[in-house]
Amino acid sequence: MTVNNISFPNMGIRLSVKETAFTVFGRDVYWYAIIMTTAIILGVVYVMMRRKFEGVSTDDIMDYAIFGIILGIIGARLYYVLTSLENYSDFWSIFKIWEGGLGFYGSLIGGALAVWLVSRRKKQSTLKLFDLISPAMMLGQIIGRWGNFVNGEAYGSNTVYEFFGMKFNTPNAASLPWAMHIDEIKDGVARSSVDCQPTFLYESLWNLIGFVLINIFYKKKKFDGQIFFAYLAWYGFGRMFIEGFRTDSLYVGPVKISQLLGAVFFIGGTVMFFIGHRFLKLNGPAGSDQKAENDPTAAVLSSAVTADEAAAVNASVETAETTVTDAAEGASIAKETITEETKEPEDGKAD
After folding, report:
1. Rounded distance, CA 150 to CA 141, Å?
2. Percentage of the chain lying above the pLDDT 90 cut
3. 342 or 272: which leads in pLDDT
4. Can you give the pTM of this predicted structure?
5. Residue ranges with strand state E in 86-243
6. Which residue among 138, 146, 151, 238 has the highest number of C-beta atoms inside a 10 angstrom radius?
7. Structure-derived torsion over alpha carbons of residues 82, 88, 94, 99, reported in degrees to the nearest 10
């Protein structure tokens, strides 16, 4: 059994946390699993509470949740395995998810793929669903990071900061009020002792602030995708900087993968956010239809027709014009015939 003695010396707080919560039929049930399950459940509950604003049914939400959770877990595992292949010489160990090894970005990509596939099947707006789910993702991250706390992981260095392959020495963070110390003990034997920063807490708090702000502005959103792009920008910006402290990061070359992806999310989300606002400012709402009002892309599509549709419309108009012309000519001939039959003979005599 692993026990993490976690303390915040400058605050006088000391905790002894067992990674195992309880045992069922000889199988250990970990606090990490309980916390992550709680995060998923509360995320689904949030979406259920918010769904009416977006006009999505309960049945649809359950479909998205089922496929999103499955592909999210698969994505999280694949992301971790592919970025740390050196730890998996045995093929079957890849499937031992209960031994740990999940990557958040993988879960985000897997979940997004699930939403895209299901929304296409249901012919619903993918961006609208992304808006609906994004705050739930933040809620899950707020809670889920505390799973790292009980595992005594995802902490940061007190003296070194990395930024895209560059390393900087920093003032020792051990003097900070929230400085943390972790002693890991397994089966009664001390395995490690480290002074560190609680980067799990930094990310949890960053997402909490973002969650509050996004919910304040949610009802004022102007187009589908706005909340999603704001989420990507907010989370990406925070993760990009917080990751610099982490001591357990995954790398691609000299660069931390999560820091790189954080930058991509921040830049991409910010650009798309302002493109949407710029489009809305230039074109304005398209009619009174709610979808068009909320989605500038939908506004364009709702007023546009394909080349085939345009050709069909032109052919119909030409046919109608020909029909009207023929009818007018027929009416003129009929009028002349009636006039000739009814007028009197010129000599005034009857036969």
Report:
1. 15
2. 60
3. 272
4. 0.77
5. 160-163, 166-169, 180-186, 189-196
6. 138
7. -110
